[in-house]
Amino acid sequence: MKNLNLLCFDFGNQRIGVAFGSQSHVQPTELPPLLARDGIPRWVELDQLVDHWQAQAFVVGIPYNMDGSISLMAYRSRKFANRLGVRYQRPCYVIDERLSSYEAKQEQLQTQGKWQHRRIDGVAARLILQSWYQQNDHKLAQQPL
């Protein structure tokens, strides 16, 4: 896969975790979360982020239920992914991100002895992007759930 500037999002109602990556063999960079109101980001801030990092595509984690069924958050995450693709006219990929927040907390506990609520979002987005790089089957957001 050629290098591609990617912004990855861990969707949330109040905060949306963000990470940037451009090479599969280099660890993605955790970025500060975007504030959101009922899952809707401040689009002007997102515009600036897309421009600053010269994003060519997006990855959005979809939090399916543990049994694989579609939760309300999975539906809302997919809706956010579709909006990104339409707004910026760039590919937007989705990936199953079950347990990414849990893994982010565990990683922080192991490395720092505690976890910081505000940093979890970026760590989760980084983990989601790392998983996306490891997968071969990349799914575009416009496909149905």
Write a brief caption for the model.
By secondary structure, this protein is α/β, with parallel strands linked by helices. It is built from 4 helices and 7 strands, in the order ββββαβαβααβ.
Keywords:
145 residues, alpha/beta, Nucleotidyltransferase, domain 5, 4 helices, 40% helix, globular
Beta percentage is: 15-25%
Q: What is the residue-mean pLDDT, rounded to a whole number?
A: 84
CATH class: Alpha Beta
The H-and-E topology, N to C, reads as: EEEEHEHEHHE
Overall radius of gyration: 14 Å
Main sheet properties: 7 strands, mixed
CATH architectural name: 2-Layer Sandwich
3D shape: globular
Distance between the termini: 25 Å
How much helical structure, as a percent, in the residues? 40-55%
Major sheet strand order: 4-3-2-1-5-6-7
CATH topology: Nucleotidyltransferase, domain 5
What's the number of helices?
Answer: 4
Give the CATH H-level superfamily: YqgF/RNase H-like domain
Number of strands: 7
Domain count, please report it.
1
Decide which structural class fits the backbone.
alpha/beta
Outline the low-pLDDT stretches.
Answer: none
Present the secondary structure layout:
Layout: E1 6-10, E2 15-21, E3 29-37, E4 40-41, H1 43-52, E5 57-62, H2 72-88, E6 92-96, H3 100-112, H4 117-134, E7 139-140
Helix pairs in contact: 3-4
